[in-house]
Design a protein that fits this description.
Layout lengths: L11 E5 L4 H12 L3 E6 L5 H11 L4 E5 L7 H13 L4 E4 L14 H28 L5 E5 L12 H21 L5 E7 L8 H4 L2 H10 L12 H8 L10 E4 L7
Parallel strand pairs: 1-2, 1-4, 2-3, 4-5, 5-6, 6-7
Helix pairs in contact: 1-2, 1-8, 3-4, 4-5
């Protein structure tokens, strides 16, 4: 009975950044819990087709969509395509993001704008488009944003990334406040140090790598699979009375 609350059977999820890394695993996890998936990525080369194959092997439907979320109009087109294919949208996972590293005194306007446009602006407008569809179809939907440990700490060399993830955290609360009247829950997951392409410079730096491991009570980097539980919980009816929250999945890094 309790486990049934975590089922996503007959649900439809949109996942951005689903061609690789954390987003690819999130798309797979939602499908494994029963959802059909609209897998969105900026590039169609390889990743999206692999995501589609893996999801279809689970017996779920998958619509791969190539889209540049930094382009005006792409958010509404994604929602339109999802509705054309599956007729509904129950879950949105705003995962797509980029990071640029440079000292603050050398940080370029382009690196600032590129990161903010994808990591914050696109989150708002895709959430807006998906929420409109959920409202119109009277669906008690779930929006899940992907935040970061930078929500809590400033970091170094990542000014625009830190600012964008701070925006995601605050936006999660604002969306949760306003969309509650439509029965839409909005929450976020803040992953810790995960084994992804974005963290390669840190993984390959012997000093920083050891610093991270030493500070993490569980003594390892996170894997994409470590997010499965929090993701499915927030996407399912098990979290119906949870909104505006940020769940940190970091192996205990913040508590040390």
């Amino acid at each position: 009975m309790v486990l049934e609350k975590f089922s996503l059977k007959d649900k439809v999820a949109i996942v951005t950044g689903a061609g690789r890394g954390l987003g690819k695993r999130m798309a797979y996890a939602l499908a494994a819990a029963g959802a059909d998936v609209v897998a969105v990525a900026n590039s169609s080369t390889g990743g999206l087709e692999e995501t589609r194959r893996e999801i279809e092997q689970l017996g779920r439907g998958c619509l791969p969509l190539q889209a540049n979320l930094q382009e005006t109009g792409s958010c509404s087109r994604i929602v339109e395509k999802a509705l054309e294919e599956f007729g509904r949208i129950d879950i949105l996972v705003n995962n797509a993001g980029i990071i640029r590293r440079a000292p603050i005194l050398e940080f370029s306007e382009k690196d600032w704008d590129d990161v903010m446009d994808l990591n914050a602006r696109a989150v708002f407008f895709l959430s807006q488009a998906a929420a409109r569809a959920m409202r119109d179809l009277n669906i008690r939907g779930k929006i899940i944003n992907i935040a970061s440990l930078r929500v809590y700490q400033g970091g170094t060399l990542v000014a625009s990334y830190t600012a964008s993830k701070g925006a995601v955290a605050s936006l999660t609360k604002a969306l949760a406040n306003e969309l509650a009247v439509y029965g839409i829950n909005v929450n976020a997951i803040a992953p810790g140090y995960m084994l992804t392409d974005n963290t390669l410079p840190l993984q390959q730096d012997p000093v920083r790598n050891q610093e991270i491991l030493k500070r993490t009570p569980l003594g390892r980097w996170g894997n994409a699979e470590d997010l499965d539980g929090a993701l499915v919980f927030l996407a399912s009816s098990a979290s119906d009375f949870v909104t505006g929250e940020i769940i940190t999945v970091d192996g205990g890094w913040l508590i040390r």
